[in-house]
């Protein structure tokens, strides 16, 4: 056990011998010997500090332990990730901490082993319409979309969408993650600016600061409302309450509107209730499809005698779909509707149409 109880090592003494060599504030370095094979290796059990400055002492300590020949295993909780993509929470990790951790691994000559077994399910990406109103969004999408690719039009479109999805995930962490907390902080800043402005209402600097705080609060308020609207798939939120009761009320209303309470069968009898409605449907289709009737053959001359396309109309039936027609079709789709399998809704394609038009239409 560690001196302050932060690290515990438990082993079976009948199989393994554990010889502690170094006891550090953030690790215990041991030599392990297996009785059955008479083999040994060094093992370091780590529990890193939450403080980045204190972890620097850990990296120096690990580098000083590097053995010259024998195998060495380092395991435990390092309280830092090797890459931004490994971060599960919405908070953005410190890049300096990541660099220090990777430098320690390289200096020690260690190899990061791939994990196996249970893997946490990744969060499903979903495009947020409020991103399109944030500064830097267009330039970010443009830069990700302009990557050179070779292949079919559909191949290039799919890979560019994946690239945009990756950069938007990072964009979300930096600007729109945890929107409610951001809104509360903006509200607190607005309250402070209001109090300061009341004490000195003629100060131009305080007036400008108040306007900036108000603009930030309103932008975050609209962004949060937009995200909640997408989450609930509601056209309009009448009562703002974190969207919980609104969402379930909307679902109940939708389920009720799709319920058939009564039906008139083929005999003209009105049937009520779920059981009678089911019987009405069955009896109707049994009457419609259950028997055989004589059908008169269709005369081809009757078809030709009706209205037909002229030769001038034929080219219009086979001409390619234009970009403007595709754009018009996209506008019909509600931007708050459910996104596709890739997580992008029509809001992304409409907001970035000037960037993606050529590739998007070329793949259709």
Automatic annotation (TrEMBL):
<protein>
    <recommendedName>
        <fullName>Endonuclease/exonuclease/phosphatase domain-containing protein</fullName>
    </recommendedName>
</protein>
<dbReference type="InterPro" id="IPR036691">
    <property type="entry name" value="Endo/exonu/phosph_ase_sf"/>
</dbReference>
